[in-house]
Specification:
About 10% of the residues lie in helices and about 40% in strands. It is mainly beta. The relative contact order is 0.15. The C terminus is likely disordered.
């Protein structure tokens, strides 16, 4: 059974942009637009960028700009990156720096080099602003994570890759907050999960698959809480459990496979 990610068998040289629809066929024009704004496929695994970015945010503004999203339901996860003013503050000096990631980074990325575009404020503080890349090798030829930042916060589509170049994950951030579709693959190029976030909280349908592509879980979310039907399957395709939730509270008894016979 094919899983729900569009790119199910990317080649080792795969660096293409995110597909134009999700597993249900919804279109994501704003995500594609974002890729062109930042002039490259930009990208990360959730844990990697979230932790790496945390160390950069300690001296940042307390409040991020509000999310601006399309009003219609089909585009609720869209964000217009192109509409924003990307100019650096008056008096700031553009600069590109290399960082050695420390213990605050995700385990797989500790000790790796990150190259980040940005600017230096008159106070001497450096803000990431523009593209950034985490490298698997010291020569900085093999990308581990590629993304972008706006005034010190991760902002835009991000992509993560395995050392052999295969795509590992993709997601979108808006001023340091996850927003939009998040996908992850294993090293065999099998899509293992698809999640959707709205302003940092799970929203809509999430799905996961076994290594063979069989369905594993499916859940529905509203404002970060399970809301609707939640199902799990065994690896042989047998329905294992099904429950109904309302705002995070289960509404029925646990139903195992025997109850569906």
């Amino acid at each position: 059974m094919a899983s729900g990610c569009l790119i199910e068998n990317p080649s080792t040289s795969d660096r293409t942009a995110v597909g134009t629809r999700d597993p249900q066929g919804a279109r994501w024009p704003a995500v594609l637009a974002a890729g062109s704004v930042f002039a490259a496929s930009l990208a990360v695994t959730l844990a990697a960028v979230a932790v790496v970015d945390a160390a950069r945010r300690r001296d940042e503004e307390e409040h991020a700009p509000p999310l601006v999203v399309a009003p219609d339901a089909d585009a609720m996860f869209a964000y217009d990156f192109a509409a924003e003013d990307a100019r650096i503050p008056v008096g700031a000096v553009p600069e590109t720096r290399d960082f050695r990631l420390g213990d605050d980074a995700a385990p797989d990325y500790r000790g790796l080099i990150e190259t980040a575009s940005g600017y230096v404020l008159p106070s001497g503080a450096f803000k990431r602003h523009g593209g950034w890349t985490i490298w698997w090798d010291e020569e900085k030829t093999v990308e581990a994570v590629v993304g972008a930042a706006r005034h010190g916060r991760t902002h835009g589509p991000t992509l993560a890759f395995f050392p052999d170049g295969r795509r590992a994950a993709e997601e979108t951030w808006v001023h340091g907050i996850r927003h939009g579709v998040s996908r992850a693959w294993d090293q065999a190029a099998v899509c293992r999960s698809v999640k959707r976030f709205f302003a940092g909280k799970l929203e809509g349908r999430s799905q996961s698959w076994y290594a063979g592509g069989q369905r594993k879980t499916e859940a529905n979310w509203r404002e970060g809480l399970e809301h609707g039907t939640v199902r799990t399957w065994q690896e042989d395709g047998t329905l294992d459990a099904e429950s109904e939730y309302a705002d995070g509270v289960r509404q029925d008894r646990y139903a195992d496979a025997a109850m569906h016979r």
